[in-house]
């Protein structure tokens, strides 16, 4: 019996090489490969997949958003995040969102096989450092749905690149009020910069949401 592996990665050359590498192991067989999230979304045999190898850095949608989507679909397989991002940057978020392992693309072929085998045994494949960070993590970040309606409006506009002055005009509020909401959002979402805010909005799919009504 060969375990069924699916791959989602937008780089054709890397995806092809990865497919050959996985297939070279007699235990695994790549049964599906995707270059875009929409191809995965439309795949009708998703629950036949034992492990999905998922890139985090995709052009249209974050891999973190895909992890959230897989939960809504009650995906019965496992997920191994294989990415250029460092474990320090994304490891905790990936595991908390349901991934069973995290690897950087710089790892040797032997480690990839080890990760797949470990995950198939029902264990997580993560480093000791990441395990420690998971057990000591005290992240109290609010979710988008937990924000007030006005906070959602301001966050969405900021994520879409609108300036505070424009947001104040759109919402018919004082610019100082916008600044207050922005500071509050930084606190609620554990953000340190405008770049963090943009990244958060991309990861959570907020930028693509319909802007909350201003009325």
Structure description:
It contains 10 helices and 5 strands, in the order βαβαβαβαβαααααα. Strands 2-1-3-4-5 form a 5-stranded parallel sheet, with helices on both faces. With about 220 residues, it is α/β, with parallel strands linked by helices. It has helices at about 10-25, 35-40, 65-70, 85-95, 110-120, 130-135, 150-160, 165-170, 175-190, 195-205, and strands at about 5-10, 30-35, 50-55, 80-85, 100-105. It has 2 domains: about 5-135, Response regulator (Rossmann fold, 3-Layer(aba) Sandwich); about 145-205, Winged helix-like DNA-binding domain superfamily/Winged helix DNA-binding domain (Arc Repressor Mutant, subunit A, Orthogonal Bundle).
Oligomeric organization of the protein chains: single chain
CATH class of the largest domain: Alpha Beta
Average of per-residue pLDDT values: 88
User: What coarse outline follows from CA principal-axis ratios?
Assistant: elongated
> What structural category characterises the helix and strand content?
alpha/beta
Our measurement of the CA-to-CA distance between the termini, rounded to an integer number of angstroms, reads 59 Å
Strand segment count: 5
- Low-confidence segments, given as residue ranges, are none
**What is the fold named in CATH at topology level of the largest domain?**
Rossmann fold
Task: Tell me the helix content.
Answer: 40-55%
Encode the helix/strand succession as letters.
EHEHEHEHEHHHHHH
Task: Tell me the strand order in the biggest sheet.
Answer: 2-1-3-4-5
> Radius of gyration from the CA trace?
20 Å
Helix segment count? 10
Q: How many distinct domains?
A: 2
Going by CATH, the homologous superfamily of the largest domain would be Response regulator
The biggest sheet, with number of strands, parallel, antiparallel or mixed sense and barrel status, is: 5 strands, parallel
The name of the CATH architecture of the largest domain is 3-Layer(aba) Sandwich
The share of residues in extended strands comes to 5-15%
